[in-house]
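A reminder from the course coordinator: this example appears on the midterm review sheet, so study it carefully.

Given structure:
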């Protein structure tokens, strides 16, 4: 069963190339994401590259790996998390004032049984965890907006 698509977006008063430089530097992900503590693309950010990630929520700390599935400069960056089959993406659209940035978490074939078990057992259940993920997406986008517009976060 497919999990719901989680999505957030924000309009940024900065050009697409500036926003892209922030989003496509995966080593900066911990600056944006409330959950991500480390993300490194092995061999650089490119289609098919693998990443090593460390996440934290309160006292819980867990590693994941992912693979970059889409890399279209100044348009879209997406990666699939191997442990739970979710695809996270950042899409950039030019606007009159700058850039619209859209973050999406998609699980077309649902998340893995192990992921659902762990979220249910340790993270308060899937619905509340997904609400928390959307809150985190909005926080991430606000932090990227602040950096792109030159505001302190």
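Designed residues:
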């Amino acid at each position: 069963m497919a999990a719901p698509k989680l999505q957030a977006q924000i309009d940024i008063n900065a050009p697409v190339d500036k926003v892209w430089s922030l989003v496509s530097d995966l080593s900066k992900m911990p600056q944006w994401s409330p959950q991500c503590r480390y993300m490194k693309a092995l061999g650089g950010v490119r289609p098919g590259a693998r990443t090593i990630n460390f996440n934290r929520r309160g006292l819980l700390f867990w590693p994941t790996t992912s693979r970059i599935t889409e890399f279209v400069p100044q348009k879209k960056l997406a990666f699939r998390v191997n442990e739970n089959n979710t695809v996270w993406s950042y899409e950039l659209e030019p606007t009159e004032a700058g850039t619209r940035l859209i973050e999406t978490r998609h699980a077309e074939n649902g998340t893995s049984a192990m992921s659902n078990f762990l979220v249910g057992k340790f993270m308060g259940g899937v619905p509340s965890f997904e609400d928390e993920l959307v809150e985190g997406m909005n926080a991430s986008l606000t932090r990227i907006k602040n950096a792109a517009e030159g505001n302190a976060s």
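The chain has a mean pLDDT of 90. The two ends are 38 Å apart (CA to CA).
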